[in-house]
Amino acid sequence: MQRKNILEELQQYDNITVQCHDNPDADAIASAFGVYTYFKELGKNVRMIYSGKTNQMKSNLKIMIEELHIPAEYVCEMPESELLICVDCQYGEGNVTRFPAKKIAVLDHHLNAGHTTDYSDIRSAYGSCATLIYKCLEDCGYDLKKNKDLSTALYYGLFMDTNEFGEMEHPYDFDMVDELEIDKNILTKMRNANFTLSELETAAVALLRYNYNPEQRIAYIRSNPCDRNMLGVVSDLLIQVDSVDTCIVYAEDNDGYRISARTCGERVTAEDLVVFLTDKVGNGGGHANKAGGFIEKKRIKSLGEYTSIENYIYMKTGQFMDSYEFLDTTKTPVITQDMERCRQLSNLHLVINPADIMPEGTECYIRHIDGNLNFYISFDTYIVINKNGYVHAIDKTEFERCYHYADFPFSLEAEYMPKLINTLTNENFDIISAGTACISNKTACYYAKRLTKNLRLRNHWDKENGNCQRGKAGDYLLVNMRNEKDCFIVQKNQYETEYERLSGG
């Protein structure tokens, strides 16, 4: 479902100020630069500013501003303008100087703080604000290939805000990395100036101050304030300890706490842990073994049940471990005896045979709103997509038994359009235009179980690549009645709209 583009909405203004948060980081600078460039090229009178108690910047940011020709100005007073656009922050929050303004817009990727402004586009699922600006520019038809400085800035903003891409989650984060053409020499300069000697000392001291839970094999470290990527360095070292399966490193940062998590093994993922820790109090994401996020102080205080950040992290981590299950159906079959029965309704879907696009045997994956589906191209493997953009693989024989082709138009109502990507070459293909509409004939019957805990599921589709499906409490585990190796997770709302319970189930 396409959002209205906020940049197009704001074209009505001619005098514009774009503001970063105080003490801006690479993501704030890159994002503001993107907004500034867009309006500057439209002929608007626009300035890019930041404020705060000091005008000190780290070496990597100085290089970024100088080498990429970014017109960032430090100010103590608001320039005369019709519109103030706060980027990578929210007007009224403590990390951004509050300037009086006639009209206010917010573009951000943190949790919505609830302040009322004239315009806003806040997407907390994105790994960086740079991703949001990239998507808005793309939707406006802006050609980023013609502006390598801006492309490099946006790339670096995401790079820094996701701990060198280790904490990306949203498919648009991955799209941006794949598609931007950047100046690699400037990127190398910035990467090699990330840390100061004092931050290196902070990391060394942090490693001496760990707490350890031997039963759960979890190590915790509270670091002194430091660069968020330095937290990742500490986490990367800590997870290499032979008795540590999970580690969490955290440090105070402005109005909250940065956290970095690492895991090894297949049962617990860093991403699931961070999402659990930041739920309703911040935002976070990442990968199976590496993730990070931010927790807001005021949101923890509003809960009223935690005495400190340590108390919060220790208690929530324990709750997470208790709320989590792992099921590998390639080794242990699902017990279906007490599960209810259901069948798929006759909803319109799209079916694609990827062998029509790539040679058989090609290693590939489909990037979609719920993650990546990894597989090898085969004439016997079909891909079925529902109207919300959720994807699942199905054997050809099972498809022919349970679906029939339909002469109806199919339209996606999805935030993200799935795409097929060659794993080796990174070339991507439009699978939507290659698809054919189909309808379930209501013969696809399943055992179904409502999840009472979060679940990581590995089935025969995931066996070769080590990936897992993820479900939350309230979602459903489905097992094909005709082939119990065919099992998968569907979200609660998808189950309620695409399946019906069978009597006696």
Write a brief caption for the model.
With about 500 residues, this protein is α+β, with helices and mostly antiparallel strands.
If you had to describe this structure to a student in words, what would you say it looks like?
There is one protein chain. The chain has 14 helices and 29 strands. Helix content is 27%, strand content 29%. Helix 2 (26-41) packs antiparallel against helix 5. The chain is globular, with a radius of gyration of 24 Å. The chain starts with 5 loop residues before the first helix and ends with a strand. The strands form six sheets. A six-stranded parallel beta sheet has the order 3-2-1-4-5-6, covered by helices on one side. By secondary structure, the protein is α+β, with helices and mostly antiparallel strands. The mean pLDDT is 90.
Notable characteristics:
505 residues, alpha+beta, six-stranded parallel beta sheet, six-stranded mixed beta sheet, 14 helices, 27% helix, globular
Structural class: alpha+beta
What is the overall shape?
globular
**Helix tally?**
14
Task: List the uncertain runs.
Answer: none
Count of distinct strands: 29
